[in-house]
Amino acid sequence: MKPQIFKIINLKKIYIISNKNENRSIKLSEKVIKFKALLVDDQKQRLENNSITCEVVDISEIKNINEKIIALYPTVGENLDYLNLNNLKIDFLYRKLDQYSWQYCNKGFFNFKNYIPKIITTFN
User: Fold this and answer.
1) Average pLDDT, whole number, for the chain?
2) Which domains, ranges and CATH numbers included, belong to the chain?
3) Is 9 helix (H, G, I), strand (E, B) or coil?
4) pLDDT tens digits, residue range 81-106?
5) How many whole angstroms separate alpha carbon 75 and alpha carbon 77?
6) Measuring CA to CA, which residue among 74, 77, 58, 64 is closest to residue 20?
7) Residue range 62-84: average pLDDT?
8) How far apart are CA 52 and CA 48, in angstroms?
9) Nearest to 69 by CA among 81, 83, 50
C-alpha cells in the first residue's frame, strides 16, 4: 500500500535528497555517511516497491529541478539551512503531529518530554 500522504497529493515522482559531506559545514564520520546512504537506499526501495517513481539526488542539485517541488519540512539542521540560504522555491508538507508538537518545543527536551503523554492522547 502506498504511504497515505503520497497517495493524497498524487505525486508523479519523488526525489530523495542526500546531503554528502561536500555540502556540510560540519563533516560527518564515514560510518554516519554510510548509515545515511543505507537509509536512502532503503527508502528508495520501499517507494519503488509501491510503484512510486523515485530518484536520489544530492541537495546541491535541487536548484536544477525544473518542476514544482513539494517536500517534507526538514524542521532543523543543515538541510533546512541549505534550503534557506539558497532561496529555493519549495512547498512544504507538514505532519499534523509535528505542527501540534512544536508549541511545546521551546525549552529543550526535558521540558518537552512532559508533554509527550498529552501529544499521544491528542493523536490516538
Assistant:
1) 83
2) 4-93 (3.40.50), 96-124 (no CATH)
3) helix
4) 888 888 777 888 778 888 899 899 88
5) 7
6) 58
7) 80
8) 5
9) 83
Site of grid cell 505542527: 99
pLDDT band at 3; cut points 50, 70, 90: very low
Between CA 44 and CA 14 the distance in angstroms is: 9
In DSSP terms, 58 is beta-bridged to 18
Q: Bridge-partner residues for 66, per DSSP? A: none
Per-residue cell: 54: 523515485
Q: What's the start-to-end Cα distance of the chain, in Å?
A: 22
Q: How far apart are CA 116 and CA 87, in angstroms?
A: 34
C-alpha cell at 72: 517534507
